[in-house]
Design goal:
It is a single chain. By secondary structure, this protein is of the alpha/beta class. It has two domains: 202 residues, Medium-chain alcohol dehydrogenases, catalytic domain (Quinone Oxidoreductase, Chain A, domain 1), CATH 3.90.180; 128 residues, Rossmann fold (3-Layer(aba) Sandwich). The protein is built from eleven helices and 18 strands. Strands 3, 5, 6, 9, 10, 17 and 18 form a seven-stranded mixed β-sheet that branches. Strands 13-12-11-14-15-16 form a six-stranded parallel β-sheet. A hairpin with a 2-residue loop joins strand 1 and strand 2. The longest helix has 12 residues. Its EC number is 1.1.1.251. This is Galactitol-1-phosphate 5-dehydrogenase. InterPro entries: ADH-like_C, ADH-like_N, ADH_Zn_CS, ER, GroES-like_sf, NAD(P)-bd_dom_sf, Zn_alcohol_dh. Its cofactor is Zn(2+).
Length: 349
């Protein structure tokens, strides 16, 4: 089969690799129909490199079941599925206590095992979730980024009437805006330095837009009251990762969803907010809970498939899988204008 294999920093190749084969009785082979490029893929392509040289990459996908292992009963050939990319042991103390996101052996497809930038992928049956009737493969490929935002919100105390600030209106930020509304948020502030992205955030449900290019968003939020109940850091930027601490009211919450690929220096003014305002600081990692893969996946499929939440609005580019190496080069050379990019193993153009 054809796949995108990652060899080194900015060395991504479209080449022939062996087809996956059923080896365990719970294995399932899926024909990939659509697969998304994640922000973490961009960071790793630009400067971090692969976990395993030459591994098939990619982790946001949907597809059709074409073969199942002998012990698989909940799926049949022809089922349309989305894939949870997080691989856990199901045996460690964290998994058994209902916290698989803290698994001692947590892994992700495309890292140490073959991923979804390919014509076919093999996964354990438990990692696959059936799509609802009428749901498109494009919607299915966007379930994973949606679950990142849901998982983060589940770590908080969000409830009806909350005021929420979302710092960073990329794909995860856009999802966080929509899900915050679904969780009952009364008002959502969208904060970004990209005016065009803020307009997208408004379409996704943001009530107040703050362009922080030339202003301190801490001061700007204070024009609307004493701070928000919940601040979400979804930019993954060291600068915003520090300054998001200035957004909540006393006793409020901060949840980190973005991944800053650098050290995070925190000025004293913002660090003291943790203590003086008695903030609750929450980290959120991956997309899963118990029973595995979790309510994040069930709810995302339900809400997206029934058009209660929009995901297609963040798609800006659709290209064939064969164009993947060229697309990655284009994104890092000039990232402006690229939202969610979807790749298709079957020719679309």
């Amino acid at each position: 089969m054809k796949a995108l294999t990652f060899y080194d920093v900015q060395d991504l190749r479209y080449e022939e690799v062996p087809d996956p084969k059923i080896e365990k009785d719970d294995d399932v082979i899926v024909k990939v129909k659509a697969v998304g490029i994640c922000g973490s893929d961009i960071a790793r392509y630009r400067s971090l490199g692969p976990y395993v040289k030459g591994n098939v990459w990619g982790h946001e996908f949907s597809g059709e079941v074409i073969e199942i292992g002998s012990a698989v009963t909940e799926l049949t050939v022809g089922d349309r599925v989305v894939g949870c990319p997080n691989m856990v042991c199901h045996e460690c103390g964290y998994c058994k206590s209902g916290h698989p996101s803290r698994c001692e052996s947590l892994n992700t497809i495309g890292a140490y095992v073959p991923g979804a930038f390919a014509e076919y992928i093999k996964m354990p049956a438990v990692n696959l979730v059936k799509m609802v009737e009428g749901m498109t493969y494009e919607q299915g490929a966007l379930v994973e980024p949606a679950t990142v935002a849901i998982h983060g919100l589940y770590q908080t105390k969000i409830k009806m009437g909350y005021e929420v600030a979302v710092v960073g209106c990329g794909n995860i930020g856009l999802m966080a805006i929509q899900w915050a509304k679904a969780f009952g948020a009364k008002k959502v502030f969208a904060i970004d330095i990209d005016a065009a992205q803020l307009q997208v955030a408004q379409k996704f449900g943001a009530d107040v837009l703050i362009n922080s290019t030339d202003i301190d968003f801490h001061d700007e939020i204070r024009k609307y009251g004493n701070g928000v109940d919940l601040a979400i850091e979804s930019a993954g930027n060291p600068f915003t990762a520090a300054r998001v601490l200035g957004l909540p009211r006393k006793g409020g919450e901060v949840v980190y969803m973005g991944i800053p690929y650098a050290d995070v220096p925190i000025p004293r003014f913002y660090f003291e907010k943790i203590m003086r305002n008695e903030l609750n600081i929450i980290g959120s990692w991956c997309t899963i809970s118990a029973p595995y893969p979790g309510k994040e996946w069930m709810n995302a499929v339900e809400y997206i498939g029934n058009k209660k939440v929009d995901v297609l609005g963040m798609v800006t580019h659709r290209v064939n899988l064969s164009e993947g190496p060229h697309m990655f080069k284009k994104i890092i050379s000039n990232p402006k204008g690229y939202g969610k990019v979807l790749l298709y193993p079957e020719e679309i153009m």
